[in-house]
Amino acid sequence: MACDYYGDILVPDFWYRAAQEFRDPEFLWAAAQTSIGPEPPIGEDQDEMRRQWKNAYARRFAWFIEHGIEPKPPETGSSIGLLSPTIYRIKERL
Questions:
Q1: How far is it, in rounded angstroms, from Cα 47 to Cα 25?
Q2: At 52, is the secondary structure helix, strand, or coil?
Q3: Tens of pLDDT, residue by residue, the chain (94 residues)
Q4: DSSP assignment, residue 91?
Q5: Structural domain that includes position 45
Q6: What is the DSSP letter of 39?
Q7: 16, 35 in Cβ contact below 8 A?
Q8: Do 36 and 65 form a contact (C-beta atoms < 8 A)?
Q9: Which long-range contacts (CB under 8 A, 24 or more apart) does 86-92 make?
């Protein structure tokens, strides 16, 4: 019996849900990084790519835009310990 791994698919959804639950800009940053990637750098050859990225961000993260929450890189840097179970309690969903 084989077991399918959905980690790569579920990771962006997890961070999205955590960001929404706690209204946390650092979790929103993690959600954006895992779902649509980092914002392209500014440059004359990057205008079209930046426009596409901003459109994708507006579609995927409309709820956060409506609530005035903007992504912010974690002050401690991105790491496996960004989500601490002693600080954030995430309810289980079945």
A1: 25
A2: helix
A3: 455 555 566 788 888 998 999 999 999 999 999 999 999 888 777 889 999 999 999 999 999 999 999 999 988 776 655 566 556 666 665 4
A4: P
A5: 7-82
A6: P
A7: yes
A8: no
A9: 88/18, 88/22, 90/17, 90/18, 90/21
Structure tokens at 39: 């914002």
Number of continuous H segments (helices) and E segments (strands) in the chain: 4, 0
CA 78 vs. chain centroid, Å, equals 12
Number of domains in the chain: 1
Whether 24 is in a domain gets the answer yes
* Global pTM value: 0.76
Question: Quick check: is 2 in a domain?
Answer: no
> Can you give 42-53 as a three-state secondary structure string?
CCHHHHHHHHHH
Is 46 part of any domain?
Answer: yes
Does residue 25 fall inside a structural domain?
A: yes
Contacts of 81-87 with CB under 8 Å at 24 or more apart are 82/26, 82/27, 82/30, 83/18, 83/27
Comparing CA positions, the residue from 12, 21, 10 lying closest to residue 91 is 21
